[in-house]
């Protein structure tokens, strides 16, 4: 619970819907920049060098039980819902890999320590990557938002084949349906 609210039970109809601002139009067909990102699995990962098909879902930040969300969090289009977003990918992980994903990763600007806590708390079967210094976000010109003086990456999901972005889901709303949308895309677009 955060502020007396469950991080997973969200009434999406009460939240502002993010609009497609064209901020990811440059990504389809782009080669990923070779940036090593710390992983909760213990090693650094460069998404640019991975073989096969990678699913990367990006989110601003997961809430931490007992810690208040930033002021005005729910009023920011696309901010709320990072825990349901991650849990949906958790719940469909086997289906995603069965549909051709060689790897699934989550990415945010949270610290590796914060992300380790998230992996443990949510029982995620895949690693989270930390872009706390925004090296990957800046190299790929990912859309950002500033909340309480902290830069965060806007929510999206990328399908990456052999280091090249094949498809982008953006904006993502509601977040808990994104994993199912990614799964449907994978099934309709096999390698």
Q: Biggest sheet, in brief?
A: 5 strands, mixed
At the first level of CATH, the class is Alpha Beta
Biggest sheet: strand arrangement:
5-4-3-8-9
Using the alpha-carbon principal axes, give the shape. globular
**Rounded radius of gyration (Å):** 15 Å
The CATH topology? Glutaredoxin
Helix content: 10-25%
The percentage of residues in β strands lies in 15-25%
GO molecular function: thioredoxin peroxidase activity
GO biological process, one term: cell redox homeostasis
GO cellular component, one term: cytoplasm
Protein name: BcpB protein
In words, what does this structure look like?
The chain has one domain: 3-Layer(aba) Sandwich (Glutaredoxin), CATH 3.40.30. It has five helices and nine strands, in the order E-E-E-H-H-E-H-E-H-E-E-E-E-H. It has a five-stranded mixed β-sheet. Strands 1-2 form a two-stranded antiparallel sheet. The longest helix has 11 residues.
Sum up the structure in keywords.
about 190 residues, alpha/beta, Glutaredoxin, five-stranded mixed sheet, two-stranded antiparallel ribbon, about 25% helix, disordered N terminus
